[in-house]
Amino acid sequence: MTEVCADKSVKKRKFRLQKGRVISMAILIPITVLWLLPLVWGFVTSFKTDADIDAHLLSFIPREITFSRYARLFAESEQFPVLMWLWNSIYTAALYTILHLVVVSLAAYAFGMLRFKGRDVLFTCVLATMMIPSVINLVPMYNMMVSFNWVGSPLALIVPGAAGVFGLFLMRQFFLGIPKSLVEAAEVEGAGQLTVFLRIVLPLSSSAFMVAGLFAFLGNWNDYMWPQIIMGAEDMIMMTLPVGLSLMQGSYNYDLGLTMTAAITSAIPVLILFMLTQEKVIEGIATSGMKD
Fold this sequence. Notes:
Elements: H1 2-45, H2 50-55, H3 68-73, H4 82-113, H5 119-128, H6 138-148, H7 155-158, H8 165-176, H9 180-188, H10 193-201, H11 206-222, H12 225-231, H13 241-247, H14 256-287
Helix pairs in contact: 1-14, 4-8, 4-11, 4-13, 8-11, 9-10, 11-14
């Protein structure tokens, strides 16, 4: 009798699990399709001819495939040096991400692992700055860049904003989940704070670094307003990809196909980066905020 009841309980549990999976898939599949449809449409449109776009704008199947826009986009041109813009975006975003991870990881270690008077109050004040709209900082930040003589320099795209509050919060929450026993054991053995940070905290935080690094890279890569302000419109060579591609569309010369080509080109490096780091990113998001 007991075995029969146990079998019924197992079957009911399996049925509830299967029912939950079916409901989840029924909800998630339409959401995924809605997210992917604009990307697929933009990708297909970039290969359509002008006549096909005019006649079948919303079609997902091109009548005729053309690569002329990609050839035009990447053609060596003094007027639109797309390859140079791409390189500017890659190296400024990469250097910004490295600097960002160094700064926020050290600050997160201090706020999360060290104990000092006023730590929580100070962290609350830092966290409160997330509520301030970033546009308010544009004028004082520009004046600072003028004082540093960084206007038109890549340093103006790399150094400001390196101490991002979101990355600090994310890293701190992850550090709080590291077992305190490991840190205490290292301290008993005579390890200093820098040794603990480098040999214990960093090896256990690779997924958190992936998440914070990806968000930092995306933020710098997609930034349009600040690079447009600080780099100016005179020197085409120093522009980043979002700013440069926006100049290819004149007020009286709107090319939808070229716009989609530029958008897909700008998204490809980010998609490749995400595919290479998706496992660590998902792991970091899932484990952030867990405490020992």
